[in-house]
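Re: that chain you flagged

S.,

Sorry for the slow reply, it's been a week of failed gels. I finally had a moment to sit down with the sequence you sent. For the record, here it is as I used it:
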Amino acid sequence: MKPVLVFDWNGTLLDDSYALLQTTNDILTHFGHATIDMNTFREHCDVPLSVLYRSLGMSEDEVTALDRDGSALFHDIYEPLADKSDLREGARRVLELARREAASSIIVSNHIVDPLRSQLRRLGINDYINDVLAFENRATQYKSMSKGERLRLYMKNYDLKPASTFIIGDMPVETDIARNLGLISISITGGFVSEARLRAANPDYTINNHHELLPILQRHGYFRNA
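Prediction finished late last night. Pasting the structure tokens below so you have them in one place:
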């Protein structure tokens, strides 16, 4: 049986931590709040992003105003910055290897499908990804089905086996999803949250870049000739 690799997108495959930090700081400045550094960002970052904004001192009225326009302010700042972001170290190699080995690579994200697919095409990896599970548009972002529920239904529809499914993410939520669905969880540092927060969620493995993913897969009996 071939493995299934389930990747988070932002901060996991896409190296956009600083893009999100800058977006957060521009939003804080817009509402008259002090900016933050990367360490502070990684200690507070959570989803939905309204949790992050509240933890940084934004009021309910400010968070509501930001959400009222479908987060246009966020996307207008973030998307041009994301267009300059590259893949995380080793990500392209892992995706190429997975395609060569006929393994499935799936993205499960809190982002929106169309801009995410646009980034896949820009980076030349659209053909490496079997499916993208994400929000349909800005209006449904964080308001419709959760990442975990999307993945659960997808696995049921395609009869994917938890024992051969790996989820790789840069936030504790991916470890929680793995625990709920019986998957193998791999946390990657250097994304949106601190290493301490990642380890506190108790994933099965913690890696610093995607090159370190291959030995884990081989330990489970996959990609042994890679």
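What I noticed first: The mean pLDDT is 94.

Talk soon,
D.
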